[in-house]
């Protein structure tokens, strides 16, 4: 019997076999505009053509914003001036030289500035047919890097650990309060709390397991526990080769991992499925870089079938690209070939 998208996804998160493998499509604004133009479709028609089983709802920040300094493209809610295409790069790190007291006294944003008034209405648009992603992305790790500078932060983990604790604590406090506002208003409309922190590089984790467990995991667990307290599944996006950190994330209660880059060290799909597939939902894994961008529809179909053969058994797998946002220079025909193959070959 054919399931609704919501039923399909929630069965997968329960590690039960659904009617078929659920499909996930995260795309950049540029790719999305290109695909709509090439296929002559509007937003929802494109989602239907691709077979995306998920829909996402957002709260918006409506509070006061820091002044954008000269030379910056924009300024984040934490006062980090950034410049360049897309998210850009920080012009400087505002707390690089800060003392512990200056960390505590910093102008941290007010969670009450988050407007949650439209979240329920947005979710209602899809009439309960799709798995709804919600909550704030909560990238406290990236914010800490921007505020301190990466190398500086790593040094301070050894020389001033209490300062790093204070910084991460303030960031996590903000995101926890924002998400509590969202869930108080709309948890009944949301199925999956979706957060994101990139912890890996092409060659392995950005920090060792000891530092991860000491500094980051408690805050990730806090967000996981918050989602669970509202009856939500919790999925985290994480780029790179972070396999050594996965057991800690599972122990913390994380329900799903996205987006699994098989070209990174330690992220071999057979190993990930064997070691972790029965304990956490694995989402993604179809290589964006070497298959979707550089391949042809024929090679995409072949590689997608190969991934399905590895990841499908026993359920617990969501099919999609190995990057959160399919990039503009990805051929639309390749993306169609990926999703059409999952629809054809991903049936249980």
How would you describe what is shown here?
This protein has 348 residues and is an alpha/beta fold. The chain has one domain (5-345): Alpha-Beta Barrel (TIM Barrel), CATH 3.20.20. Helix content is 45%, strand content 14%. The protein has 14 helices and 14 strands. It has helices at 5-13, 29-39, 43-50, 100-105, 119-124, 140-148, 150-159, 161-186, 209-229, 246-251, 269-276, 288-293, 297-311, 332-345, and strands at residues 54-56, 60-61, 74-75, 81-83, 89-90, 114-115, 131-134, 192-196, 200-201, 204-205, 233-238, 256-259, 281-286, 317-321. The strands form four sheets. Strands 1-7-8-11-12-13-14 form a seven-stranded parallel beta sheet. A three-stranded antiparallel beta sheet has the order 3-4-5, with no helix packed on it. Strands 2-6 form a two-stranded antiparallel sheet. Strand 9 and strand 10 (204-205) form a beta hairpin. It is globular. It starts with a helix and ends with a helix. The model has no long low-confidence stretch (mean pLDDT 97).
Q: Uncertain runs with pLDDT below 50, 5 residues or more?
A: none
**What is the highest CATH level, the class?**
Alpha Beta
Tertiary shape = globular
User: What is the distance, rounded to the nearest whole angstrom, between the alpha carbons of the first and last residues?
Assistant: 11 Å
Instruction: Specify Rg, calculated over alpha carbons.
Output: 20 Å
Which structural category do the helix and sheet elements fall into? Answer: alpha/beta
CATH topology: TIM Barrel
Number of strands: 14
Overall pLDDT level: 97
Q: Helix and strand string, N-terminal first? A: HHHEEEEEHEHEHHHEEEHEHEHEHHEH
Reported for the largest beta sheet, the result is: 7 strands, parallel
Q: Could you say how many structural domains there are in total?
A: 1
**Content of β-strand:** 5-15%
Helix fraction by DSSP (H/I, runs of at least 4) = 40-55%
Instruction: Figure out the total of helices.
Output: 14
Q: Widest sheet: strand order?
A: 1-7-8-11-12-13-14
**Which architecture name does CATH use?**
Alpha-Beta Barrel
């Amino acid at each position: 019997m054919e399931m609704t998208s919501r039923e399909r996804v929630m069965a997968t998160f329960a590690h039960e076999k659904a009617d078929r493998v659920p499909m996930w499509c995260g795309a950049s604004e540029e790719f999305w505009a290109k695909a709509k133009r090439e296929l002559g479709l509007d937003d929802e028609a494109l989602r239907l053509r691709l077979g995306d089983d998920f829909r996402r709802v957002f709260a918006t920040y409506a509070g006061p914003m820091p002044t954008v300094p000269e030379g910056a493209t924009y300024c984040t809610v934490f006062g980090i001036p950034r410049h360049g295409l897309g998210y850009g790069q920080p012009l400087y790190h505002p707390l690089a030289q800060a003392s512990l007291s200056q960390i505590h006294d910093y102008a941290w944003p007010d969670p009450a500035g988050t407007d949650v008034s439209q979240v329920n209405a947005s979710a209602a648009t899809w009439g309960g047919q799709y798995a709804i992603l919600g909550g704030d992305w909560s990238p406290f790790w990236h914010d800490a890097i921007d505020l301190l500078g990466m190398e500086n932060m790593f040094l301070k983990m050894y020389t001033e650990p209490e300062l790093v604790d204070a910084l991460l604590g303030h960031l996590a406090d903000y995101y926890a309060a924002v998400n509590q506002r969202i869930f108080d208003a709309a948890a009944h409309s949301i199925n999956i709390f979706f957060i994101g922190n990139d912890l890996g590089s092409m060659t392995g984790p950005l920090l060792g397991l000891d530092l991860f467990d000491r500094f980051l995991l408690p805050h990730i667990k806090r967000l996981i526990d918050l989602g669970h307290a509202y009856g939500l599944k919790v999925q985290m996006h994480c780029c790179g080769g972070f396999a050594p950190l996965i057991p800690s994330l599972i122990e913390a209660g994380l329900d799903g991992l996205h987006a699994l880059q098989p070209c990174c060290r330690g992220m071999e799909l057979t190993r990930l499925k064997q070691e972790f597939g029965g304990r956490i939902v694995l989402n993604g894994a179809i290589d964006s870089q070497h298959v979707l961008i550089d391949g042809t529809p024929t090679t995409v179909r072949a590689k997608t079938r190969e991934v399905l053969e590895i990841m499908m058994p026993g359920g617990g797998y969501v099919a999609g690209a190995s990057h959160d946002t399919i990039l503009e220079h990805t051929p639309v025909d390749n993306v169609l070939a990926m999703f059409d193959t999952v629809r054809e070959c991903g049936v249980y």
